[in-house]
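Friendly challenge for the regulars: who can give me the structure tokens for this chain first? No prize, just bragging rights.
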Amino acid sequence: MSKKQNQKQWKTRTDGKKLYMICQNSEPDGKYWQGHICNEWSVVGERTTTVLCWKCTMSLCTAPEVGAGYKSSGKPRGWQFMKEFVDEQGNVYHKGIEQPQLKGTLPPTAIEASDKKKLSKKEKEELKEQILLQIAMVRGQVKKATLKKDISKGKSDLKKLERQLKKVQ
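First reply, four minutes later:
Bragging rights claimed.
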């Protein structure tokens, strides 16, 4: 007997152009039998011999392990990109690579905390409106200006305000 003749034929049905096959757990004592009969039909290809539905597959698999997430190393953000960083223990790093031969030879790197406050969405909108009003005023002044120095000053002010607007967006 060849392999194909030795295999069990599972129930199939056709619905339009799709071919459906019943789950292997529709009959007891199969390879993946878990003590209950499954009547789930799955969409399969023409050459499929057996199928195990998603429900039975999930019952066989264990839940994935979810890690604890990000764990801080105690070093400041971006330390691995600094040309030279020395932590509190005296370890010296050059671009994130530890240099054990230099341990304890340099003082710890001083990191200044930035006092820059992150703007809320509402604050950003208000700031954007203020800058747009200033741009409108400066454009009006440039149109009215007759002297070259006033025009060039107005244009430089416009560029400055446009850069500020770009930062806010």
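Strands lie at 12-15, 18-22, 41-44, 85-86, 92-94, 97-98. The chain has a mean pLDDT of 88. Your move, everyone else.
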